[in-house]
Design goal:
The protein is built from 12 helices and 2 strands, in the order H-H-H-H-E-E-H-H-H-H-H-H-H-H. With 268 residues, it is mainly α. It has a two-stranded antiparallel sheet with strand order 1-2. The protein starts with 10 loop residues before the first helix and ends in a 6-residue tail after the last helix.
Amino acid sequence: MGVERVPGLSTGTVTLVRREILRYVRRPRNTFLPPFVNNVLYFAVFGVILGERIGSYGDGIPYILFVLPGLVVLGAVSNGFENASFSIFHGRWNEYIHEVLTSPLSYGQITFAYVAASTLRGVLVGVIIAIVGVAFTVAHPAYSLVSVAHPVYLAVALTLVAALFACFGVVGGLWARDFDYLTVLNQFLIRPLVFFGGVFYPLDALDGIAYTLSFLNPMVFTVDAVRYGFLDSNVLHPWLSLGVLAGATAVVFAIDVALVKRGYGLTE
C-alpha cells in the first residue's frame, strides 16, 4: 500500500509516522483496553461510589464530572509518554533505530514522527476515557449529559498535553538503559505529579504554602486547561495555561532534536 502525500510533510516523515501509528493500532488489547478497564474502575469507585458522598464542587459540578477532565489528562499523559519512550527504547534495544537514523530524514523530522504518533495515541486514549465518563453520567439518573463548554480550546489543550509528554517520552527513551528505567519514570515521577495536579481535588482545597507550591507542578496547568475546556471551570487564566503548555512543548521538542542530533543514547 502506498503512502499518501501530506502537504508540508515529506514522504519519509509520513512513512515513519504511519509505521509508528500502525505499531500500536494493530494491538488494541495492549493499547486501548487497559486504559478503558482502568477508567471504568476509576469512574465506578471515585465517580459513583465516593462521588455521591462527596457531592459537588464550585458551581455545583458533580464530583464525577469534576474528576473526568483529570482522568482524561492522566490517560493522555501516560500514553503519550509511554508510546514515545517505549518505541525509541525498543528501537535502540533491538538496534533497528539505526535504519531510521541513516535515512535521509532530518533530526527534526525523525523527532516529529515519534512525537506525532505518540501524541495521537494520547489523544485517542483521552477520547476513550471521556466516552467512558459520559457513559457513566448518562447511565446515572442523578446526572445530566456532559456538555463540552469550549470544544476548540479543549481539542487544542488535549493535543498540547499529549504532545508535551510525548516529547518527554523521547527524552525518557533516549535516557533509559533498560526497561526498568521506563517503569520508574512513569510510576514514580509522572503519575505522582498528575495525582498532585488537582485530578481528584480542587486546588483551592489547599492552604498557604501547599497551594503556592502546587503551581510548581506542571500538571496543574494541564488539568486546569482540560477542565476549563470541558466544564468552564478553572483556577488559572485559560490562555495562561495554554501558553505554558505550548511554550513547554516547544522547548522540550527542541531538546529532543538536540539530543537526537548529538546521538545521546543512540551512539554512546
